Amino acid sequence: MSLRFGRVARRAQAPKLPGQYNGRFMPSKIGPALRSAFLIACVCAGAALLSQPAPREQVGPLPGGGFLLNSGWKLQPVGKQIAVDTFPMATALSPDGKRLLVLNGGWKPPSISVLDAVSGAVVSTTPIPDGWLGLTFAPRSNKVYVGGGSKAAVFEFTLSSDKLEADRTFPAPFEEKQTDRDFIGDVAFSPDGRL
Fold first, then answer.
1. Distance of CA 115 to CAs 95, 111, 118, 164, Å?
2. How far apart are CA 150 and CA 109, in angstroms?
3. Strands 88-93 and 99-104: what pairing?
4. How many other CB atoms are found less than 10 A from the CB of residue 91?
5. In three state form, how does the secondary structure of 103-116 look?
6. Is pTM beyond 0.85 here?
7. Cα–Cα distance measured from residue 194 to residue 104, given in angstroms and rounded to the nearest whole number
8. Residues 6 or more apart whose Cβ sits within 8 Å of residue 121
9. Could you report the per-residue pLDDT of 126-144, keeping only the tens digit for each?
10. pLDDT in tens, 32-89
11. In a designed cystine with 19, which of 28, 50, 81, 165 is the match (CB 3.0 to 4.6 A)?
């Protein structure tokens, strides 16, 4: 094995020609000052675009059909989303399967929305004195019963022609004995439909 000592021969480099930069052709009309100005303008434009704040997201419905929660989480429904009133708490399907009732609470006055079960269109909305989770049809009937929440009562309605008509109110306990602690949350029928 032999070692060589001494100077390493450098490769001969071709002299730079006018209009070349690192061996690549550059138009001779663009001088170094114009190139520097162009580079500075590009950097400034890029910095201005990147420094703009992102648009602020608002809690609520999103353009794609989802919903942004105040926690920053986004919900995206799997099926079709149908707008009803505030805070839907309970649903009941009519015995014939044609209408879906939705009990709405929330910050607006309570109500029951009647939807077409096939199209999902809201066909009517009926205000109620109060409600909380309790919503049911009587077996094999068009009678609807709603738990009256802080009104401490059960409200009876009849579903006819896509509208709910108020029938009777069943206070529990009797009105003269009610206190602010009385509350009806849910309602259900016995298996035979008698109670």
1. 14, 13, 9, 12
2. 13
3. antiparallel
4. 13
5. EECCCCCCEEEEEE
6. no
7. 27
8. 115
9. 999 999 889 999 988 899 9
10. 777 777 888 878 777 777 776 777 778 988 887 888 999 989 988 787 778 888 899 9
11. 28
